[in-house]
Amino acid sequence: MLIGIVGKPSAGKSTFFKALTLAEVEIANYPFTTIKPNHGTGFVKVECADKDFNTKCNPRFGYCTNSKRFVPVELLDVAGLVPGAHEGKGMGNQFLDDLNQADVLIHIIDASGSTNEKGEAVEPLSYNPANDIKFLEHELDMWYLRLIQKGWDRFARGVNQEKPELHKAIAKQLSSLRVTEELMKEVIEKLSPDKDIMKWDREILLKIATELRKETKPMLIACNKIDVNGAEKNFEKLKEQFPDRILVACSAESELALKGAARAGIIDYIPGESDFAARDNPKINEKQKAALGFIKKNVLGNYGSTGVQEVLDKAVFGLLGMIAIFPGGVGKLEDSEGRRLPDCFLMPSKSTALDFAFKLHTDFGKNFIKAIDVRTKKAVGKDYLLKNRDVVEIITGK
Q1: pLDDT(166) > 70
Q2: Where, residue-wise, is CATH 3.40.50.300 in the chain?
């Protein structure tokens, strides 16, 4: 699973990426700060299973604080996108090639309207951020259309002569876009194009491109810079204008500041929480106190969090529909090295106990006998549908 962070230059992508990963990335207020994609690790937030067993976990990967488990996920911050990217403008070709790897997209927009379509600084509230939502979707649609049209005439003639099942043939043709036979069948049924593929013109191919983009690249919109005065009004307008999109108000700079203060021992802070606790630290200065006070009042107070953690969690658990599963045992929760509930795996929704067995090890799947719900101590079969936060023991024949 790979989460792509996308958007125009200077919208705050690199700050958002650093706020999630605390990686050292270049951040500057000019277009194309990011030239090559940045890879990093973020952490989605899960209610840890340890509290249900009145114990404390010892994660092998990620970390856990006050029964808030942070599970690692891979992030990709790609080069900034400008209008005309599908034609190669800006860093368009590199952007789109990098983007093809992602399973879900987080689109960072400047909700304060202080950067124009090219990522250049303008007066706050002078640019309409709704334009960024429209142009990014348009660029992606045109990119998909370009890939569909590549070799299309020859493909269509072959289909017209050989008469294969249409959805299967097109799915195979577009496999590089992760198009499945089931998805292509749904798209054809929804759009009801002419049964003669030779009559499909650019208009119908663009409609197909749009539908495939929506399904294969689900997207969440992070309305960044919400701490800028007036940005909240833009955010409300965006929610009215795009009721079918997932929009989250966020302040990447605030999240980065809070994590930095926590690392420095100035505050205690759990990402995604609505407050933080100040420590008695003599190193804190008046400027830092003022900054933390501003964040507490204007960001946490108004929105309940900085929004950064919420964005990542909604992308993984909402758009991708992942669930968190803990391996464990009825007899003990420790692994061979004594770590309690050491692992937490992210699985697609509707995963079964057998799917989980294969996730743990191929031999576990091949030699599966049954699984046990550790909370209830009840045995379940291979077709048991896992639930979020299940703790499962796999019983094998060998």
Answers
A1: yes
A2: 2-37+78-126+218-315
